[in-house]
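Weekly sync, protein design subgroup
Attendees: M.S., D.O., the rotation student, P.L. (late)

Item 1: inverse folding check
M.S. brought a backbone from last month's batch and wanted to see whether the design step gives back something sensible before we order anything. D.O. pointed out we never logged the input encoding, so this time it goes straight into the notes. C-alpha coordinates as presented (374 positions):
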Protein backbone atom coordinates (compact mmCIF):
# COMPACT_ATOMS: atom_id res chain seq x y z
CA UNK A 1 0.00 0.00 0.00
CA UNK A 2 1.33 3.44 -0.95
CA UNK A 3 -0.46 5.85 1.36
CA UNK A 4 -2.06 5.90 4.79
CA UNK A 5 -4.24 3.23 6.30
CA UNK A 6 -6.25 3.82 9.48
CA UNK A 7 -7.12 0.93 11.79
CA UNK A 8 -10.18 1.36 14.03
CA UNK A 9 -9.20 -0.01 17.45
CA UNK A 10 -12.04 -1.00 19.77
CA UNK A 11 -10.36 -0.78 23.13
CA UNK A 12 -11.27 0.89 26.39
CA UNK A 13 -14.16 0.80 28.83
CA UNK A 14 -17.58 -0.29 27.59
CA UNK A 15 -20.85 0.80 29.15
CA UNK A 16 -22.79 -1.95 30.94
CA UNK A 17 -26.51 -1.60 30.27
CA UNK A 18 -29.15 -1.84 32.99
CA UNK A 19 -31.38 -4.91 33.02
CA UNK A 20 -35.16 -5.06 32.89
CA UNK A 21 -35.40 -6.27 36.48
CA UNK A 22 -39.17 -6.01 37.01
CA UNK A 23 -40.47 -8.45 34.38
CA UNK A 24 -43.10 -10.61 36.10
CA UNK A 25 -43.36 -14.36 35.54
CA UNK A 26 -46.92 -15.45 36.39
CA UNK A 27 -48.23 -19.02 36.55
CA UNK A 28 -52.04 -19.15 36.49
CA UNK A 29 -55.10 -21.20 35.58
CA UNK A 30 -58.10 -20.22 33.45
CA UNK A 31 -59.88 -22.85 31.37
CA UNK A 32 -62.00 -20.22 29.65
CA UNK A 33 -59.15 -17.83 28.77
CA UNK A 34 -58.55 -17.01 25.13
CA UNK A 35 -56.41 -19.92 23.92
CA UNK A 36 -54.65 -17.81 21.30
CA UNK A 37 -53.59 -15.14 23.77
CA UNK A 38 -52.86 -17.62 26.56
CA UNK A 39 -51.95 -21.04 25.10
CA UNK A 40 -51.38 -23.80 27.66
CA UNK A 41 -47.86 -24.36 29.02
CA UNK A 42 -46.40 -21.62 26.85
CA UNK A 43 -44.58 -18.48 28.02
CA UNK A 44 -46.43 -15.49 26.56
CA UNK A 45 -45.13 -11.93 26.63
CA UNK A 46 -47.76 -9.42 27.75
CA UNK A 47 -46.90 -5.79 27.04
CA UNK A 48 -50.42 -4.35 27.43
CA UNK A 49 -51.87 -5.69 30.64
CA UNK A 50 -55.11 -3.76 30.31
CA UNK A 51 -55.84 -5.39 26.95
CA UNK A 52 -54.88 -8.82 28.30
CA UNK A 53 -57.53 -8.60 31.02
CA UNK A 54 -60.25 -8.93 28.41
CA UNK A 55 -58.75 -12.23 27.21
CA UNK A 56 -58.17 -13.78 30.66
CA UNK A 57 -61.54 -15.48 31.14
CA UNK A 58 -63.25 -15.65 34.51
CA UNK A 59 -62.40 -19.10 35.90
CA UNK A 60 -59.23 -20.08 37.72
CA UNK A 61 -56.65 -17.61 39.04
CA UNK A 62 -55.56 -15.72 35.93
CA UNK A 63 -58.03 -12.83 35.88
CA UNK A 64 -57.86 -12.15 39.62
CA UNK A 65 -54.04 -12.21 39.58
CA UNK A 66 -53.83 -9.88 36.58
CA UNK A 67 -56.30 -7.45 38.16
CA UNK A 68 -54.32 -7.38 41.42
CA UNK A 69 -51.09 -6.71 39.51
CA UNK A 70 -52.76 -4.06 37.34
CA UNK A 71 -53.83 -2.20 40.49
CA UNK A 72 -50.13 -1.60 41.16
CA UNK A 73 -48.52 -1.21 37.74
CA UNK A 74 -48.76 -2.29 34.09
CA UNK A 75 -45.45 -4.08 33.59
CA UNK A 76 -44.07 -6.40 30.97
CA UNK A 77 -45.11 -9.91 31.97
CA UNK A 78 -44.46 -13.50 31.03
CA UNK A 79 -47.67 -15.48 31.61
CA UNK A 80 -47.82 -19.27 31.58
CA UNK A 81 -51.35 -20.67 31.70
CA UNK A 82 -51.59 -24.20 33.06
CA UNK A 83 -54.57 -26.55 33.03
CA UNK A 84 -57.09 -26.64 35.84
CA UNK A 85 -56.98 -30.09 37.41
CA UNK A 86 -59.17 -30.83 40.42
CA UNK A 87 -57.44 -34.17 41.03
CA UNK A 88 -53.78 -33.13 40.81
CA UNK A 89 -53.37 -29.37 40.42
CA UNK A 90 -49.78 -29.40 41.70
CA UNK A 91 -48.63 -31.63 38.85
CA UNK A 92 -50.26 -29.36 36.27
CA UNK A 93 -48.69 -26.26 37.82
CA UNK A 94 -45.21 -27.71 38.24
CA UNK A 95 -45.14 -29.38 34.84
CA UNK A 96 -42.07 -31.09 33.40
CA UNK A 97 -38.55 -29.69 33.33
CA UNK A 98 -37.59 -31.78 30.31
CA UNK A 99 -40.38 -30.49 28.10
CA UNK A 100 -40.61 -26.98 29.62
CA UNK A 101 -44.24 -27.29 30.67
CA UNK A 102 -45.93 -25.81 33.73
CA UNK A 103 -43.79 -23.41 35.69
CA UNK A 104 -40.67 -24.79 33.98
CA UNK A 105 -41.89 -22.96 30.86
CA UNK A 106 -40.47 -19.83 32.50
CA UNK A 107 -36.99 -21.21 31.73
CA UNK A 108 -37.78 -21.01 28.01
CA UNK A 109 -39.30 -17.52 28.21
CA UNK A 110 -36.18 -15.55 27.31
CA UNK A 111 -35.45 -17.68 24.26
CA UNK A 112 -39.04 -17.39 23.04
CA UNK A 113 -39.89 -13.80 23.98
CA UNK A 114 -36.60 -11.98 24.53
CA UNK A 115 -37.46 -11.24 28.16
CA UNK A 116 -36.40 -13.04 31.33
CA UNK A 117 -38.94 -13.19 34.17
CA UNK A 118 -37.34 -12.01 37.40
CA UNK A 119 -40.36 -11.50 39.70
CA UNK A 120 -42.08 -14.87 39.89
CA UNK A 121 -45.19 -16.31 41.48
CA UNK A 122 -48.20 -18.61 41.17
CA UNK A 123 -50.84 -16.76 43.23
CA UNK A 124 -53.46 -19.08 44.68
CA UNK A 125 -51.62 -22.17 43.45
CA UNK A 126 -48.47 -22.01 45.59
CA UNK A 127 -48.61 -25.14 47.74
CA UNK A 128 -45.40 -26.35 49.37
CA UNK A 129 -44.56 -28.50 46.35
CA UNK A 130 -45.20 -25.65 43.92
CA UNK A 131 -43.24 -23.15 46.01
CA UNK A 132 -40.27 -25.52 46.18
CA UNK A 133 -40.30 -25.87 42.39
CA UNK A 134 -40.67 -22.11 41.92
CA UNK A 135 -37.60 -21.51 44.08
CA UNK A 136 -35.63 -23.98 41.94
CA UNK A 137 -36.63 -22.19 38.75
CA UNK A 138 -35.96 -18.76 40.29
CA UNK A 139 -32.43 -19.82 41.19
CA UNK A 140 -31.75 -20.66 37.54
CA UNK A 141 -33.29 -17.39 36.38
CA UNK A 142 -31.74 -15.34 39.19
CA UNK A 143 -35.21 -14.13 40.05
CA UNK A 144 -37.35 -13.49 43.12
CA UNK A 145 -40.26 -15.70 44.16
CA UNK A 146 -43.17 -14.45 46.25
CA UNK A 147 -45.31 -17.22 47.71
CA UNK A 148 -47.94 -17.63 50.39
CA UNK A 149 -47.10 -18.82 53.86
CA UNK A 150 -49.33 -21.77 54.73
CA UNK A 151 -51.11 -22.01 58.07
CA UNK A 152 -54.14 -20.90 60.03
CA UNK A 153 -52.14 -19.27 62.82
CA UNK A 154 -48.76 -17.61 63.33
CA UNK A 155 -47.25 -20.76 64.88
CA UNK A 156 -48.33 -22.82 61.86
CA UNK A 157 -46.77 -20.38 59.40
CA UNK A 158 -43.54 -20.18 61.38
CA UNK A 159 -43.33 -23.97 61.26
CA UNK A 160 -44.08 -23.95 57.53
CA UNK A 161 -41.24 -21.47 56.95
CA UNK A 162 -38.77 -24.10 58.20
CA UNK A 163 -39.35 -26.13 55.02
CA UNK A 164 -37.33 -23.67 52.91
CA UNK A 165 -33.76 -22.40 52.68
CA UNK A 166 -33.79 -20.50 49.37
CA UNK A 167 -32.43 -16.98 49.15
CA UNK A 168 -34.67 -16.46 46.11
CA UNK A 169 -37.87 -16.99 48.14
CA UNK A 170 -40.03 -14.58 50.14
CA UNK A 171 -42.99 -15.98 52.08
CA UNK A 172 -46.02 -13.76 52.73
CA UNK A 173 -48.78 -14.22 55.35
CA UNK A 174 -51.70 -13.61 55.80
CA UNK A 175 -53.83 -12.45 52.85
CA UNK A 176 -55.66 -9.23 52.08
CA UNK A 177 -59.29 -9.43 53.20
CA UNK A 178 -62.21 -10.17 50.88
CA UNK A 179 -59.83 -11.34 48.17
CA UNK A 180 -58.97 -14.48 46.26
CA UNK A 181 -56.51 -16.85 47.90
CA UNK A 182 -53.48 -15.51 46.04
CA UNK A 183 -54.21 -11.80 46.29
CA UNK A 184 -51.33 -10.90 48.63
CA UNK A 185 -48.87 -12.72 46.40
CA UNK A 186 -50.25 -11.21 43.18
CA UNK A 187 -50.13 -7.68 44.58
CA UNK A 188 -46.58 -8.34 45.79
CA UNK A 189 -45.59 -9.23 42.23
CA UNK A 190 -47.10 -6.01 40.93
CA UNK A 191 -45.64 -3.88 43.71
CA UNK A 192 -42.18 -5.37 43.17
CA UNK A 193 -42.35 -4.41 39.50
CA UNK A 194 -43.57 -0.92 40.45
CA UNK A 195 -40.73 -0.42 42.94
CA UNK A 196 -38.18 -1.55 40.37
CA UNK A 197 -39.62 0.98 37.92
CA UNK A 198 -39.97 3.91 40.33
CA UNK A 199 -37.13 3.40 42.81
CA UNK A 200 -34.93 0.47 41.84
CA UNK A 201 -34.16 -3.15 42.56
CA UNK A 202 -32.17 -2.16 45.67
CA UNK A 203 -35.36 -1.22 47.58
CA UNK A 204 -37.19 -4.03 49.36
CA UNK A 205 -40.93 -4.71 49.11
CA UNK A 206 -41.50 -3.48 52.65
CA UNK A 207 -43.32 -0.29 53.68
CA UNK A 208 -44.58 0.80 50.26
CA UNK A 209 -48.30 1.57 49.84
CA UNK A 210 -50.36 -1.20 48.21
CA UNK A 211 -53.22 -0.20 45.92
CA UNK A 212 -56.66 -1.81 45.84
CA UNK A 213 -56.88 -3.35 49.32
CA UNK A 214 -59.29 -2.61 52.15
CA UNK A 215 -58.08 -4.78 55.01
CA UNK A 216 -56.15 -7.81 56.26
CA UNK A 217 -57.61 -11.30 56.54
CA UNK A 218 -56.21 -11.94 60.03
CA UNK A 219 -56.14 -9.80 63.15
CA UNK A 220 -52.49 -9.03 63.93
CA UNK A 221 -51.12 -6.87 66.73
CA UNK A 222 -48.66 -4.30 65.35
CA UNK A 223 -46.82 -1.49 67.07
CA UNK A 224 -43.76 -0.01 65.41
CA UNK A 225 -42.20 0.56 68.85
CA UNK A 226 -42.87 -2.92 70.27
CA UNK A 227 -40.62 -5.94 69.63
CA UNK A 228 -43.11 -8.47 70.98
CA UNK A 229 -46.04 -8.08 68.56
CA UNK A 230 -47.55 -10.63 66.17
CA UNK A 231 -45.93 -8.76 63.29
CA UNK A 232 -42.53 -8.86 64.99
CA UNK A 233 -42.90 -12.62 65.55
CA UNK A 234 -43.58 -13.16 61.85
CA UNK A 235 -40.68 -10.94 60.79
CA UNK A 236 -38.39 -12.72 63.23
CA UNK A 237 -39.28 -15.95 61.42
CA UNK A 238 -38.34 -14.37 58.04
CA UNK A 239 -41.97 -13.99 56.96
CA UNK A 240 -43.20 -10.82 55.28
CA UNK A 241 -46.57 -9.81 56.68
CA UNK A 242 -49.26 -7.17 56.13
CA UNK A 243 -49.98 -4.12 58.25
CA UNK A 244 -51.91 -0.89 58.28
CA UNK A 245 -49.12 1.66 58.10
CA UNK A 246 -48.84 4.33 60.82
CA UNK A 247 -48.47 6.73 57.88
CA UNK A 248 -51.79 5.54 56.41
CA UNK A 249 -52.81 2.82 53.97
CA UNK A 250 -51.74 -0.80 53.86
CA UNK A 251 -48.23 -2.11 53.26
CA UNK A 252 -46.14 -5.27 53.27
CA UNK A 253 -43.86 -5.35 56.32
CA UNK A 254 -40.59 -7.28 56.31
CA UNK A 255 -37.31 -7.47 54.40
CA UNK A 256 -36.19 -11.06 54.93
CA UNK A 257 -35.72 -13.97 52.56
CA UNK A 258 -35.70 -17.69 53.36
CA UNK A 259 -31.92 -17.84 52.89
CA UNK A 260 -29.81 -20.15 55.02
CA UNK A 261 -26.85 -17.82 54.38
CA UNK A 262 -26.90 -14.73 56.66
CA UNK A 263 -25.19 -12.57 54.03
CA UNK A 264 -28.32 -12.98 51.88
CA UNK A 265 -30.89 -12.55 54.64
CA UNK A 266 -32.15 -9.27 53.14
CA UNK A 267 -34.10 -9.20 49.89
CA UNK A 268 -32.04 -6.25 48.53
CA UNK A 269 -28.78 -8.16 49.07
CA UNK A 270 -30.04 -11.07 46.99
CA UNK A 271 -31.41 -8.89 44.22
CA UNK A 272 -28.24 -6.78 44.11
CA UNK A 273 -26.14 -9.93 43.72
CA UNK A 274 -28.44 -11.25 40.98
CA UNK A 275 -28.55 -8.01 39.01
CA UNK A 276 -24.79 -7.52 39.23
CA UNK A 277 -24.19 -11.08 38.01
CA UNK A 278 -26.32 -10.61 34.92
CA UNK A 279 -25.42 -7.02 34.11
CA UNK A 280 -21.69 -7.67 34.34
CA UNK A 281 -21.81 -10.99 32.48
CA UNK A 282 -23.93 -9.56 29.66
CA UNK A 283 -21.88 -6.39 29.61
CA UNK A 284 -18.69 -8.37 28.97
CA UNK A 285 -19.89 -10.49 26.07
CA UNK A 286 -17.79 -8.28 23.79
CA UNK A 287 -14.61 -9.49 25.55
CA UNK A 288 -15.13 -13.19 24.80
CA UNK A 289 -12.71 -14.58 22.20
CA UNK A 290 -10.68 -11.38 21.93
CA UNK A 291 -6.86 -11.73 22.25
CA UNK A 292 -6.03 -12.12 25.93
CA UNK A 293 -3.58 -9.25 26.40
CA UNK A 294 -2.93 -6.90 29.28
CA UNK A 295 -5.04 -4.32 27.47
CA UNK A 296 -8.04 -6.65 27.37
CA UNK A 297 -7.67 -7.48 31.08
CA UNK A 298 -7.51 -3.78 31.93
CA UNK A 299 -10.56 -3.05 29.77
CA UNK A 300 -12.57 -5.80 31.51
CA UNK A 301 -11.64 -4.51 34.98
CA UNK A 302 -12.31 -0.89 34.02
CA UNK A 303 -15.69 -1.83 32.54
CA UNK A 304 -16.81 -3.53 35.76
CA UNK A 305 -15.50 -0.71 37.94
CA UNK A 306 -17.26 1.91 35.81
CA UNK A 307 -20.59 0.13 36.30
CA UNK A 308 -19.99 -0.23 40.04
CA UNK A 309 -19.17 3.48 40.34
CA UNK A 310 -22.36 4.41 38.50
CA UNK A 311 -24.44 2.23 40.84
CA UNK A 312 -22.76 3.76 43.90
CA UNK A 313 -23.48 7.25 42.55
CA UNK A 314 -27.12 6.25 41.99
CA UNK A 315 -27.40 5.03 45.59
CA UNK A 316 -27.95 1.39 44.62
CA UNK A 317 -24.65 0.17 46.05
CA UNK A 318 -22.58 1.21 49.05
CA UNK A 319 -19.36 0.32 47.27
CA UNK A 320 -17.46 -2.26 45.27
CA UNK A 321 -14.50 -2.89 42.97
CA UNK A 322 -12.97 -5.40 40.55
CA UNK A 323 -9.33 -6.51 40.40
CA UNK A 324 -6.86 -8.98 38.91
CA UNK A 325 -5.35 -11.48 41.35
CA UNK A 326 -2.10 -13.03 40.05
CA UNK A 327 -2.50 -15.96 42.45
CA UNK A 328 -5.65 -17.02 40.60
CA UNK A 329 -4.18 -16.57 37.12
CA UNK A 330 -1.25 -18.88 36.45
CA UNK A 331 0.84 -18.59 33.30
CA UNK A 332 -0.57 -21.91 32.12
CA UNK A 333 -4.19 -20.79 32.62
CA UNK A 334 -3.64 -17.49 30.85
CA UNK A 335 -1.92 -19.32 27.97
CA UNK A 336 -4.96 -21.60 27.82
CA UNK A 337 -7.26 -18.59 27.43
CA UNK A 338 -8.58 -18.64 31.00
CA UNK A 339 -8.89 -15.41 32.96
CA UNK A 340 -10.21 -14.89 36.52
CA UNK A 341 -11.35 -11.44 37.66
CA UNK A 342 -12.49 -10.87 41.24
CA UNK A 343 -15.10 -8.31 42.19
CA UNK A 344 -16.76 -7.44 45.47
CA UNK A 345 -19.72 -5.30 46.44
CA UNK A 346 -21.59 -4.01 49.46
CA UNK A 347 -25.37 -3.89 48.98
CA UNK A 348 -27.52 -1.19 50.54
CA UNK A 349 -29.20 -2.80 53.56
CA UNK A 350 -32.72 -1.66 54.48
CA UNK A 351 -33.05 0.38 57.66
CA UNK A 352 -34.82 -2.41 59.52
CA UNK A 353 -34.19 -1.25 63.08
CA UNK A 354 -34.00 2.38 64.18
CA UNK A 355 -33.16 3.12 67.84
CA UNK A 356 -34.05 6.51 69.29
CA UNK A 357 -32.61 7.51 72.66
CA UNK A 358 -35.02 9.78 74.55
CA UNK A 359 -33.74 11.76 77.54
CA UNK A 360 -35.67 13.97 79.92
CA UNK A 361 -33.80 17.04 81.15
CA UNK A 362 -34.41 20.43 82.78
CA UNK A 363 -31.51 22.19 81.05
CA UNK A 364 -33.75 23.98 78.55
CA UNK A 365 -35.32 25.93 81.42
CA UNK A 366 -32.09 27.95 81.43
CA UNK A 367 -32.87 29.11 77.91
CA UNK A 368 -36.44 29.92 78.93
CA UNK A 369 -35.23 32.01 81.89
CA UNK A 370 -32.81 33.91 79.65
CA UNK A 371 -35.54 34.64 77.13
CA UNK A 372 -37.90 35.89 79.81
CA UNK A 373 -35.19 38.09 81.30
CA UNK A 374 -34.56 39.62 77.87
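Designed sequence read out in the meeting:
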Amino acid sequence: MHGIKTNILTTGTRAIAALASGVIGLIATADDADAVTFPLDTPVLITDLRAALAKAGTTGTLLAALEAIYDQVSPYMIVVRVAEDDLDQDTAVIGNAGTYTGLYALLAAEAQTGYRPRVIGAPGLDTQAVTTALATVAKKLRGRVYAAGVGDAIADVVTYRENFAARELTLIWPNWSNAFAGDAVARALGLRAQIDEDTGWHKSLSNVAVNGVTGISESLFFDIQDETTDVAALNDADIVTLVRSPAGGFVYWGNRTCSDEPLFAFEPAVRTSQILQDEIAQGLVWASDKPLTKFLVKDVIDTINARVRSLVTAGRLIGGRAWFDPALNSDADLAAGKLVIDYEFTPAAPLEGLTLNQRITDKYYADLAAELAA
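Discussion: The chain has a mean pLDDT of 95. The chain has two domains: 24-268, 291-374.
Action: P.L. to compare against the previous round before Friday.
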